[in-house]
Design a protein that fits this description.
Elements: H1 6-26, E1 35-50, E2 55-57, E3 75-90, E4 93-105, E5 123-133, E6 140-149, E7 162-173, E8 179-188, E9 207-213, E10 216-218, E11 221-232, H2 247-250, E12 279-290, E13 296-308, E14 316-327, E15 333-341, E16 392-405, E17 408-419, H3 426-429, E18 461-472, E19 477-489, E20 500-501, E21 507-508, E22 512-513, E23 516-526
Length: about 525
């Protein structure tokens, strides 16, 4: 046998760790022993989609093959396994460790899907936290890597913050109707290597977020006001040299893929390097639902946020509101809904007017969309218009839980989207000479950066229709099929996304766009 590579040794080490955990669960227990509980989910998904990232040909006339955002082919097969192990000492003390294997695209060697199935980075720690109750009280604490999110009773996915993150959460129940949850999380710290100046390594690179939620519930009514504060060092989102991409503003540098929506519509450039700044971010929101008139339900949500940096062009403030009305019948539950979010004005020097957000969304799944924003929590493609609804308004219709046969249910939704960003911003984005370079979150430049969707102006529109069907094969095994289609209408006049002359004087034609569709089938075993 040849010498083992570091990747092979790491894979074997991870396998031994997993095996040891399973052995622990099989040990005999006594009355004072720790109880081990395990749960998890297996997903195998097969997906086919055309239309890629909406681009048929770019401004250079090159055909864009594949979906684009993750370099996926038109057809993909994927596998993901999640296993959660809980060590339970009592109802007041437990520890949880949550593993994730995948997603593994079948055939991709770097993910362990190629011949031989030996791949690096296929296993990761998703959660690792301690739960305990303060002695003699009902105050609960959770410490470690965990999911922290803000509530939204309309979209079911927060437009501001939902992520796996290291931190501390404390929940205090005051009564059956009132409780308070406070959290402190640290998304980033000690990641800045100092670039060319090694003396500045790990200097002012921490990001800290503090939040409060106050759930209030009565018969037929629940309301949750919340507030959140973020403080960010000027190097908090930087990982490499200062002359590289403005990852603090854009939230994406190299392969970090943080997609932080704190960034403004521009970052300053003094001719030598990007201007980085300290920042303080504030958010507040109110969401609720009324079920007193059951089977009728009314839900609403409002979010506001701002980021102050001391540099006007780097500041950001905006808001988002949504409303949903739903009525439950025996045959299904139809709903009508709408939303509006502020958008950028026509001046990149005064910052952004879009809602700031922390976009490393994890389990967020929108109940209103499928692939346009964050859709189902399976392995299907999503977020092609943006991972949040910032910078758009829209209306939609949905009918869910329709069933004609036993164990088979269907959900259908239809949505109309339009941008709220000024169409005059397009002239900066598409390459016109400017004192400011546009690096907008959510893929402001649909010509190049499609990591987090499209930048829709008030002249751009999209239409989405999605149908999902779920069949319960066994109690723990279901078969899910989704079919989605998005029609896109961009304003390709010369004043918006049409042709332009770049900084070299070369005339660039408008992109050739096409609609997007996909179909995926998933087998989901959950226990």
């Amino acid at each position: 046998m040849g010498e083992q590579t570091p990747h092979m040794r790491k894979s074997k080490f991870l396998s031994l760790c997993m095996a040891a955990l399973f052995c622990l669960m099989c040990l005999p227990t006594t009355s004072k022993a720790i109880d081990f509980k395990i749960k998890g989910v297996w997903i195998n998904m097969f997906e086919y989609g055309d239309g890629g990232n909406f681009l048929q040909k770019d401004r250079n006339g090159k055909h864009q093959q594949g979906w684009g955002r993750w370099g996926e082919d038109q057809f993909e097969a994927k596998t993901r396994v999640r296993l959660q192990l809980q060590a339970l000492a009592s109802e007041n003390l437990s520890g949880t460790l949550y593993f994730e294997v995948g997603a593994i695209p079948w055939g991709r060697g770097s993910r362990g899907g190629a011949l031989g199935a030996d791949g690096d980075r296929i296993t990761k720690i998703k959660h690792a936290y301690l739960d305990w109750t303060w002695p003699g009280t009902s105050i609960q604490s959770r410490m470690g890597i965990q999911r922290v999110f803000l509530p939204d009773y309309v979209t079911e996915a927060s437009q501001v913050f939902d992520a796996d993150v290291a931190g501390l959460t404390v929940s205090v129940p005051f009564s059956d109707n009132f409780s308070l949850t406070a959290f402190w999380v640290r998304p980033f710290n000690d990641n800045w290597d100092g670039g060319s100046d090694l003396n500045s390594s790990h200097y002012l690179d921490n990001a800290d977020i503090f939040g409060l939620t106050l759930p209030i519930s009565f018969d037929g009514l629940r309301v949750t006001p919340w507030a959140m504060l973020g403080v960010f060092g000027k190097n908090a989102f930087r990982t490499h040299n200062a002359l590289n991409t403005a990852s603090w503003y854009y939230g994406f540098e190299g392969n970090t893929d943080y997609g932080i929506g704190l960034s403004p519509s521009a970052y300053a450039f003094d001719g030598k390097e990007n201007v980085y700044a300290y920042a303080t971010a504030c958010w507040t929101g109110l969401t609720g639902e009324i079920t007193a008139w059951d089977p009728f339900k009314l839900a609403f949500s409002f979010n506001y946020g701002s980021v102050e940096t001391g540099e006007e062009a780097l500041n950001r403030q905006g808001w988002y509101a949504s409303l949903l009305a739903e009525y439950k019948f025996d045959w299904g539950t139809p709903a009508i809904y709408g939303w509006y979010s502020s958008g950028d004005d026509d001046d990149p020097t005064n910052g952004s007017e879009r809602l700031p957000n922390i976009e490393k969304n994890n389990e967020s799944t929108s109940g209103l969309t499928s692939i346009a924003t964050l859709g189902t929590w399976t392995l299907g493609r999503d977020a092609v218009l943006g991972s949040t609804l910032a910078g758009t308004w829209g209306v939609g219709l949905r009918v869910r839980d329709v069933s004609f046969l036993e164990d088979l249910t269907h959900t259908l939704h239809i949505n109309y989207y339009q941008g709220t960003n000024s169409s005059d911003m397009a002239r900066y984005i598409k390459g016109a000479p400017s004192a400011y370079t546009i690096i907008q979150p959510n893929g402001v430049d649909y010509n190049n950066a499609n990591y987090y969707g499209l930048y829709l102006t008030d002249r751009d529109k999209a239409f989405e229709v999605g149908l999902s069907s779920q069949y319960q094969i066994y109690e723990n095994l279901k078969f899910l099929v989704e079919a989605n289609y998005i029609a896109l209408w961009l304003d390709n006049s010369q004043s918006v996304w049409g042709g332009f002359r770049d900084n070299s004087g070369v005339f660039r034609h408008a992109n050739s766009t096409e609609d997007l569709w996909n179909v995926n089938a998933s087998f989901i075993y959950k226990f």
